[in-house]
Amino acid sequence: MAKCIRVDREDAEKVRKELISIGLLDNTYSPEQEGKFVYFAVKTKPPGRVLITREMKARQEHGKSLGEAMEGKLTKSEQGELVKSFDIVGDIAVVDVPPSLVGKQQLLANAILKNHKNVHVVAKKVGGTGGEFRIRPVEVIAGEDRTHTVCREAGCEFELDLNFVYFSSRLETERTRIAALVKKGEHVLVPFAGVGPYAIRIAKKVPSAKVVAVELNSVAVEFLLKNMERNKCANIAPVRGDASKDLPGDFVNWADRAIMPHPTDGARFLPTIIPCIKKGGMLHYYSFGDAMKPYAAAEMELKTVAMRLGRKVEVVFKRVARPYSKERVQVVVDAKII
Ligand SMILES: C[S@@+](CC[C@H](N)C(=O)[O-])C[C@H]1O[C@@H](n2cnc3c(N)ncnc32)[C@H](O)[C@@H]1O
């Protein structure tokens, strides 16, 4: 709850300037408009105004950078070790704490909580992304004791638990790009659906599309079902199972588009997924590549399998979806399957 004042919409700009000039505007919250009124969060009661309390949205903007926030709290060599960037998934900040900084992790976590009003949990990575379900384990080091959160993206909500499912907020741009390509009435197959970020972004943007979302991890499927409900997506058919063997035969030549967001192991599934794509349909294929020749391996995998199946591949677009390490990048290749 925040301390606020309510003003008529037409006076809002004038009042905002006044509040700034007397130093009472509380910038940790965004102003909110409701009907004829605008609500401003304030530090204390401005003269001549009625103070009310109200639920207000904390500003998403970041405060100090982690490097700035830790100034004076770390030695010079510790500053050099500090991993300054971190992901925010829902309201959880996921940080890298190098072994040399474990003794300072509480300070670090508190600095994040103080500077990011939208963060309520700080969790540190305790292993790399691994296993069949591609989970990256984390341990909570500050804030509320949970790894369960809701991530908001482009008007959609994804409920998830970091310790039980895969989710990457870094792929938002890629999901936006793909969702924008889907046309009315398309049949879309998402064989590695996770908690549903691709399937739901598409299903919500194009309600006439039919989306089939396949996922092996039962916990991810449970979240997918909840997320379909949360986002009111009745046009997704979830399939709990293995994309290499649990797709029924009637999916052959069914898809106008297939999305394969499984960059570490996608090649193994190409012989099953390519036959599901109609002649002239589109495949969005994710893979890891050498930073010097990012697309060579992905294109070779696609062409080899397609040729074996008597199909042809026409690459229409490719991009680096995100850097992974100095030597490796994650790429996406969009290919027409003829
Ligand atoms: C890299 S994650 C991508 C998840 C999701 N599309 C996203 O972007 O958040 C790959 C997903 O494929 C799932 N998976 C792995 N093997 C599978 C299989 N044989 N069939 C179906 N899904 C599988 C994993 O559990 C995981 O959720």
Write the layout of secondary structure elements.
Elements: E1 2-8, H1 12-21, E2 32-34, E3 37-41, E4 52-54, H2 66-69, H3 76-81, E5 87-89, E6 92-95, H4 105-115, E7 121-125, E8 138-143, E9 148-153, E10 156-161, H5 172-181, E11 187-190, H6 197-205, E12 210-215, H7 218-230, E13 236-240, E14 255-260, H8 270-273, E15 277-290, H9 296-308, E16 313-323, E17 328-337
Parallel strand pairs: 6-7, 11-12, 11-14, 12-13, 14-15
Antiparallel strand pairs: 1-3, 1-4, 2-3, 5-6, 7-8, 9-10, 15-17, 16-17
Helix pairs in contact: 5-6
Bound molecules: S-adenosylmethionine.
S-adenosylmethionine binds at residues 132-134, 166-168, 171, 191-194, 197-198, 214-217, 220, 242-244, 261-262.
Task: Give keywords.
Alpha-Beta Plaits; Rossmann fold; single chain; 17 strands; 31% strand; alpha/beta; 338 residues; GMP Synthetase, Chain A, domain 3; seven-stranded mixed beta sheet; binds S-adenosylmethionine; four-stranded antiparallel beta sheet
Q: How helical, in percent, are the residues? A: 10-25%
State the fourth-level CATH superfamily of the largest domain: Vaccinia Virus protein VP39
Please state the overall shape, judged from the principal axes of the Cα atoms.
globular
Report how far the terminal alpha carbons are from each other: 57 Å
Ligand identities: S-adenosylmethionine
Based on CA atoms alone, the radius of gyration comes out at 24 Å
Oligomer: single chain
Q: What is the CATH class name of the largest domain?
A: Alpha Beta
Q: How many β-strand runs?
A: 17
Strand content: 25-35%
CATH architect. name of the largest domain:
3-Layer(aba) Sandwich
- Mean pLDDT over all positions: 93
| Spatial order of the strands forming the largest sheet | 13-12-11-14-15-17-16
